[in-house]
Amino acid sequence: MSEDVQPLAFIEHHPPSDFNQFLLFDVWSSLSYDHLPSIASEKIAVTGPGGGIFTTQGDLARPHVRLEHWQRLPNDGQRESDVFEGQLTCETGKLLLGGIPGSPDDIAIDIDPGRYAIRAWRSRIQREYQLDSDIFEAEDNPGYFSEHWLIRLAKIE
Questions:
Q1: Whole-model pTM?
Q2: Residue 4: inside a domain, yes or no?
Q3: Checking CA distances to 96, which of 49, 74, 120, 149 falls within 20 to 30 Å?
Q4: How far is Cα 151 from Cα 157, in angstroms, rounded to an integer?
Q5: Secondary structure (3-state) at 35
Q6: Bridge partners of 95?
């Protein structure tokens, strides 16, 4: 099978969305996400030196993210989605997918240091978010919804 048919690596994660945002960032570098440009209200993400910040559709969104590392970005994506294209840099070769303040549940992906093209899709379809029925009653759900994301990276040579 051609290496362009499958991602080199992928992770799936449910990062916490603090202030309607989650991040993909090289937290081990000297860079800070405070140095990224501000996100325009019509955009779903902003990227730059060190990584990117991604915005959800609201306070009650619970993102489900599939992050894929590719040799070359494929043209297909996720249907019925808002799309973002940009670039980011990674100094240390490790990007963290997680919440803005950090969490023990955050996940890292290892990539080569360098500059990357990024394409992200945020689904417009909102699915009911299922709370743990052993802990919560159905009426305890204030309206949380699942939001599916597909984020792809490919190194720029």
A1: 0.86
A2: no
A3: 74
A4: 19
A5: helix
A6: 109
